[in-house]
Amino acid sequence: MDIKSIIFNWQTLLGAVIGASAPFLLWWFTEVFIRRRRNKEDLYYLEKVVVDQINLLSDIEMTIERFLTLKVKELINNINDTPPESYSADTAFFPLFSTRPLPYDVVRKSSGSGYLDNKIAKAFSLSEDFPHIIKDLRHQFEDTLNRNEKMAFNKLNSPEVQKEQFKINVQVYEKVVREDMLGKNIPMYFKKLTETLVAIRQKSKMSSIGWKIKFDPRWRWYPYLSKKSYFEARAKVMDKMDIHFKPEVDKILKEIEESQK
Known about the structure:
By secondary structure, the protein is mainly alpha-helical. The chain has 6 helices and no strands.
């Protein structure tokens, strides 16, 4: 068999292989494209609902701050201005505002990143608890006013004792809301939402493989001295990613704080 025949046979074989594999390759590339586009759409949806939750939380924080600064302070001033011989039965209303958790579908499927899934799960859990916390704050305030009203109308104590106890109860309520709600719960929720938002935006900029190569030790070569050091590195991945994203998280949190001034 001469060289021309060999080349011809190889060309025929190669053409047959390419012809047979072309439909499969076309299907595979189409699936990859559709999967990537769907993943981008899912990340965009996640970003929208998290941003919406941050804006909602910001409005709630400012509303509660105004409530304490204006209404609760006014209530305390009215107690102080009540004549010595009179009981104080002043009232106020806890503000009405919308509270809603993140939609359930944000945790129904994986984002393709264990780190991001973990952030979403924590933010979702807090978002479910938050409306109950607000409801409890409203109940505590109404209960404080109702108990005082009964004390005033039934004249269980002298006017001075009643007013002093009323003022103390209102001040304790204000302190609890400022320290626990404004000082702890809302800042923690802001942080979890912002960490989730930053992770979503960063992942949107990268392919799934690029994300894994950048952050996951299983997807990149590194001279680990032992299997133990490898597993230790894997265990610290999320901590390292938190550190990596921290500057952007701090930047957004600062922007939120400045927007409320």
